[in-house]
Structures are given as C-alpha cells and as structure tokens.
Amino acid sequence: MASVASLTDLVNQQLTSALSAARPEASADPLLRRSDRADYQANGILALAKKAKANPRELATEVVSHIVTGDLIKDVEVSGPGFLNITIGDRAITGNLAARYADDTGRLGVPHAEHPGTTVIDYAQPNVAKEMHVGHLRSAVIGDSVAQLLEFTGESVVRRHHIGDWGTQFGMLIQYLEEHPHELDHEAGEVSGEEAMSNLDRLYKAARRHFDSDEEFKTRARRRVVDLQAGDPKTLAAWQKFVDESKIYFFSVFEKLDMEIRDADIVGESGYNDMLAETCRMLEESGVAVRSEGALCVFFEDVKGPDGNQVPLIVQKSDGGYGYAATDLSAIRDRVFNLKADTLLYVVDARQSLHFKMVFETARRAGWLNEDVTAQQLAFGTVLGKDGKPFKTRAGETVRLVDLLDEAIDRASAVVREKAQDLSEQEIAERGTQVGIGAVKYADLSTSANRDYKFDLDQMVSLNGDTSVYLQYAYARIQSILRKAGDVRPGAHPELELHEAERALGLHLDAFAETVAEAAREYAPHKLTAYLYQLASLFTSFYDKCPVIKPAPPRDVAENRLFLSDVTARTLHRGMALLGIRTPERL
C-alpha cells in the first residue's frame, strides 16, 4: 500500500499554495506546529513579512484570503502579530485515519525516508570471559531500538557487536588453562549460558591472582599474547574456546532481553587484527600519524593534558603492540570501504567521548570520513540507583545484568498476578516476563540517551505514570473492548461530528508517522516513548468521555469509536515494537 500523507503535510501544501498566491515572488516555510489555541498554528508568515518588509498581520490576512476552507481546513484565523490558527475538519481526521487503518502491511501508512542510505550501528559490546553488568544494558537497549527505527523508515542497517575478544587478558587465560587443563572440563555447548560464564569468571579470577603474584607466570602469559597475535594454531584454538563459551552466555542474556543478536553480526576486536599493520602504515605514510618516542601517534591542537602538552591518540605502542585506536580505525575502514556505509553510529558510554572524537577526526584526516560518510557517537549516560549514585549492589559491587533482569521479571509477575482475572500460571509467567523486560527497556528509552537515569524497579512496574506497564495495559484494555463489542465491528464514519476527546485522539494518532521519522532522524527513541505515553493518556480520556459499549451509543457512533480504539491499539503495538517491547493481548 502507498504511504498516507499526514494532516500536517496536507495542510502545509494548502498553506504553501496560499503563500505563493499572495506573494508569487516569495517562498516561505509555513512552520506548522501543534497549538493549544487551535489544531495547528503557522508562524512562517512572520519571517516572510520581515523579508518582504510588510506588515505581518496584513500579510497574514492576505494569505487567509487565498485559503479555501472545506473538509481539510475547517477554519483559519489571524492571531497575534501574524500567526495563522488552523482548525482541521472532522471528516479529514477520520478519513485520514481510515486510510492508515486500511494499510494491511502493519505500517499504518507511514512512508519510508526519501533518501535512505546504509548505516552501520555498533552496539551491545560485551567482553569475552566477563559477565555482563548493568553498564551493558543501555548500549544494547538503545542500539536495538535505533536500529529498528532506522529499518522501519527504509534505511539499510548493518548491526555490529564489537565484543572485547583480544588483548593481554587472553594470554593470561590461555596460559593458565594450559597449566591447569582440568579447570575448564566441559565442551562448549554442554552447559547453560550462565554456567558457562560462571566457569569463565572463576577461571579469570584464578588466572588474575596467579598473574599478579607470580612473575614467571606473568612472563609466560605475555609470551602467549605474542603467540596469539602471531596466529599460533594451538593458542588460537584455546582462544576460540573462550570465545565460544562466552557466546553461549551472551546469547542467553540477549534472549532474556528479548533481543535478537545474530552470530554473523558479532565482529569483535579480533576481526580487524589482519588490518592493523596496514592501517598504521597508511596513517604514517599520509602524515596523519607520526612517531613520538617510538609510538605512532596522532596529535590534536585542542586535546591537551593538565601540563598543557598535547595528548595524542596512540595508534601503535612503542613496543609494537596495537591499542584500541588501531582497531577502531581499522573497523572504520572496513565499514566504509567493504560494507559501503554512509553513516557510522557508535552506541557507547559518554565517558569514551574523547576517544571517539579523536578516532573520528583521525579518520577524517585520512579521508575515510568526509561529507558523504559520517560517524557519530550516540553517547549515553550512567544507570544510577535510587540514591542518585552509580548503581551497585549492597556490597558495593557492579550489578550483574541477569540478576537485574530476573528481579524485574519477578516484580512484574507479581503485578500481573494481582490484576489477572482469567490467566493461567503459565500465562502469568509469560506476561510477567514481557512486562518486566518491557519495564526495563522503557525506563531506559524514555530518558534522553545522554542523560543519567535512576533505576527504580518499583516505579518501572507501576501501573501509574509514564511506564511501559501503563502502555501495555492500555493496549490489553483495547483488545478487551474489541472482544466485548459483540457483532459491532470497527468502522470509520467520516460523516460523524467528533467529540472533543475524539478529535484530540485522532489528531495525535495522525502524528505517528512524523514522530517515527523524527525519532529515527535524530536517533532519539525517547521522542517515540513520549508520543506513546501521550497516546495512551489521550485514549484514557477518550474512553472516559465517549461511551463505546455501555451505555450503548448509536451503532454508527459505536463503530467509529471502536475504529478509533483499534487504530490506537495498532499504533501502540507498532510503536512499542520499535522500542523492542511486547504488547500482550491480555493482562
């Protein structure tokens, strides 16, 4: 089905025509916006009047004379210094929603972007042989939602999970395992994800203690790193075992998060190992990087240390080893020249902002990034506890992500059980998982990514306020209404005059496409969550003021109100899916 133009676009078209008729020599953007005084307000007249050296109110009056009122624009009046207050006709609201309702693709008539490209998004970056903690939550949740928003608008999206799977710690682990072969006495795939990571965590801690207390072992472990980087088959086989064990765990956590992570999308630090030497050579030969005290460095005028000296980006260490910069720059080369991306997104903690600023600038100097190929860090803030401090356990340790998710599911299951009327224990467990995981995701996504937010499970699973549970219950409530409607089915009746609450709901529903486009364009899922919360609130107001089933209104009115309810449900379902959140049919 073809996309459906929003009421905003349709009104803009009429205003643009009126502006051209009033002043053929001028062009102006009507700058349409929602208003408390009318459905829309256009304030582009002020800018045009200034440019034309005309009186704004006189010019606005002239424009109004060229606007034909009817089904779309019911009324328009000049307000203030030259604003146009515009009221939309009821027929246009219902008719436009009917066109969206007829879209059997599930897109609700939302158009694709005019000029989609290819975006590589780097998110959900756990480390091999280490448990995922609360700090890994935001990258995964934000990245998944941004990827889904971009795909929905037509962008070609390539997911990349840049896991930490290379470096000194693996020499330490591999050497320890060789000297203690029975410490890891099972084959990959024989145990659960959490058991696999528990084994690796225990092994890592034992190896670290040995590494810190035994200088001879430390020397052997460092030699093992050299063997790993050189591609020694025996060392690589041991390393691969650690990676496989960790992936069992990663997939179990992402499955609990209700998030699909494909093995083909996991390209860790090791995936760029063969490119590192060439990356360094290219940077040095081009003069972008220079040798300083034996290390290959890139300097920046605006990056200085406390002593006033420039702090470089070290691409290659003086001992010949490669740091994170070499890997990140090699990844940029791969994503630009092999994957043909024109946009690179990195969903990474804000504390790494300086690193990425230097990496991106280095890539620009090398010519790998330019006006046609851009890179951007989607920096996110810290997850805080109720006390406003970084989220920790009572013992002061970092909170394990699986523990946090399990607790959210338990809390949500209690809420579902309390409200459940006709759900089996199996259904309560299933809904509790969907509500609990949805609560965690929504709390994260409803906050602007670059801000810190407090992790408060009591608030997250509340039925009141801006929570996913509130939205999920709104959706389930509508499904219940539709089931109880009997032989009265949803049907649009554009000829009917709308109640004020129906108008408010309808106008907001029509703004879904604009909201999705804005959220995708700005990589801002929180704008979609704000829209969905307001939608649920407007539906509640509509349902309170406009009887749908009891007391029974005239059949055509009932059909139209069921139609508005169903469009609301479909919009909630689609919007929540773009956030990675389920909408159960019954709660």
Q: What's the total helix number?
A: 20
Number of domains: 4
CATH class of the largest domain: Mainly Alpha
Low-confidence stretches: none
Query: How many beta strands in the DSSP annotation?
Result: 13
Question: Globular, elongated, flat, extended or rod-shaped: what is the shape?
Answer: globular
Please, what is the average pLDDT?
91
Percentage of helical residues? 40-55%
Q: What is the fold named in CATH at topology level of the largest domain? A: Isoleucyl-tRNA Synthetase, Domain 1
What percent of residues are in strands? 5-15%
Structural class: alpha/beta
Straight-line distance between termini: 32 Å
Rg, Å, rounded: 29 Å
Name of the CATH homologous superfamily of the largest domain: Isoleucyl-tRNA Synthetase, Domain 1
Largest sheet: 4 strands, antiparallel
Architecture of the largest domain, according to CATH? Orthogonal Bundle
Task: Write structural notes for this entry.
The protein is an alpha/beta fold and 587 residues long. The chain has 4 domains: 7-88, Arginyl tRNA synthetase N-terminal domain (Gyrase A, domain 2, 2-Layer Sandwich), CATH 3.30.1360; 168-265; 268-380, HUPs (Rossmann fold, 3-Layer(aba) Sandwich), CATH 3.40.50.620; 411-578, Isoleucyl-tRNA Synthetase, Domain 1 (Orthogonal Bundle), CATH 1.10.730.10. The chain is built from 20 helices and 13 strands. A 4-stranded antiparallel β-sheet has the order 1-2-4-3. A 4-stranded parallel β-sheet has the order 6-5-10-11, with helices on both faces. A 3-stranded antiparallel β-sheet has the order 7-8-9. A hairpin with a 2-residue loop joins β7 and β8. α13 crosses α14 (425-445). The longest helix is centred in the middle third of the chain and has 24 residues, at 233-256. The radius of gyration is 29 Å and the shape is globular. The model has no long low-confidence stretch (mean pLDDT 91).
